[in-house]
Structure formats: structure tokens, C-alpha cells
Design brief:
The protein has 94 residues and is mostly helical. It has 3 helices and 2 strands; from the N terminus they run H-E-H-E-H. It has a domain of 65 residues. A two-stranded parallel ribbon has the order 1-2. It is globular and about 35 Å long.
Length: 94
Amino acid sequence: MVTFQGSRAEAVDLEAVEDVVAELTLLFKVRRWVFEAPQAVASVQRFAAATPGVSVEAGIRQSTLQGRIFGTLYRLIANRQLVLYPHDNCARRP
């Protein structure tokens, strides 16, 4: 697990995050990424250049897109196809 944590004094280095995501994209053979925020255009451009053959796009914040993404995420978790592991910085439920 890789964790990035910024602070008010020092932001997370987005290029470092992009590098890790690019490595994981190749490892898990991801074929498509949608960045939710329109502000991610620079990241989308760098990430697309670093991952040829992968569809990379900046999505516009739309309720239909969000519903589809979060519906898919819920189904993956509910069907135990995506497992969430405990992490030191995550709130734990009793």
C-alpha cells in the first residue's frame, strides 16, 4: 500500500502520485482511467503520455457519471471483488 499525505505547508506531489498509478496501471492491466475533476487536465495529459494504450480522460462532474462510478465501486465491494484493508490513517469502526 502506498500512502501520500500532504499538509497545509506542503502539498502532495501529484507527479509522484501519477508515477505510482502508472506503475499500478501496468501491473493490473488497467485499460481506462477517468479523472473526475476538470482541474486534473495537466495530470490527465502527463498520465496519458506515461501510459500509452490506456484511455485517460478528464470527466466533468456529472451526477450520472458519479452514479455510475460509485455504483460500480459499491458492487465491487459488495461482491468481494475489491477488498479494503485496514490502514493506520483510516478511522476504524468498533
